[in-house]
């Protein structure tokens, strides 16, 4: 599997996990879990963009 595809898939997975953590954190009133979810979601978006850049430059 190309590294760009792997980065895109892993990025989407981290975004999904982050959204779940954020939602659960809000629902149960846990600001730490909510913040952790936001960070993981952002990291997933960054990883996905890295995959897009790799695809453009042909890696």
From TrEMBL:
Basic and acidic residues compositional bias, start-end: 1-24
Membrane-traversing stretches: none
Pfam families, sorted: CsbD
Chain spans, region Disordered: 1-32
All copies of domain CsbD-like, residue ranges: 7-56
InterPro entries from the UniProt entry: CsbD, YjbJ_sf
Family: Belongs to the UPF0337 (CsbD) family.
The protein, known as: CsbD family protein
Species name: Desulfococcus multivorans DSM 2059
């Amino acid at each position: 599997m190309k590294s760009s595809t792997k980065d895109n898939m892993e990025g989407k997975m981290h975004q999904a996990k982050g959204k779940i953590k954020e939602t659960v954190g809000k629902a149960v009133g846990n600001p730490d879990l909510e913040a952790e979810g936001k960070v993981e979601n952002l990291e997933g978006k960054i990883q996905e963009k890295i995959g897009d850049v790799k695809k453009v430059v042909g890696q």
